[in-house]
Amino acid sequence: MNAVFKLIALRPLKGCKDYILKCLSEDTTYYFSNDYEISNDGETVSFVNSNLKPLANDFFGPPKVTSSGPLINISAIVGKNGYGKSSIIELAMRLINNCALEYKFNASRHTLLKVSGVRAALYYRLNNDIY
Asked: What are phi and psi of 69, to 5 degrees?
């Protein structure tokens, strides 16, 4: 069975440095998917639209999925110039970098360096679990 991965949201937390935040706001949730809702405290993630049926895990895949690789679902990020699209991506990449370093996902041929000042939560779905 293929793994299913979907980005839900990114939330900069208190203490995230200004040079990382740029035009983003602390404790504001930036959604990649509009079918989930995250509580104000960031602790509860729920599927919000009971009338909206989630797409099948292989909806965007080829007609017959033969690969054993993961099925990935990523939404587009749109907005006016200066509204934080690049800042959201940069924050997510810095957070993923620091997590990879922390959890020893550092391949021997690549050297990761910790980015200081990163404080954020990345919400995602892996198979049927929300993290």
From this structure: -75, 170
| pLDDT tens by residue, 40-85 | 998 999 888 656 666 665 665 555 555 666 666 666 788 899 999 9
Helix (H), strand (E) at residue 118: none
120 DSSP 8-state letter: E
Residue 115, C-beta contacts closer than 8 angstroms, at least 6 positions apart: 20, 94, 97, 98
Tell me the C-alpha to C-alpha distance, in Å, between residue 68 and each of 23, 91, 119: 40, 30, 34
Total-model pTM: 0.78
Give one DSSP letter per residue of 47-83, joined into a string: E--TTSPPPPTTTTS-SS----SPEEE-------TTS
Q: Single out the residue of 103, 95, 93 nearest to residue 120, CA to CA.
A: 95
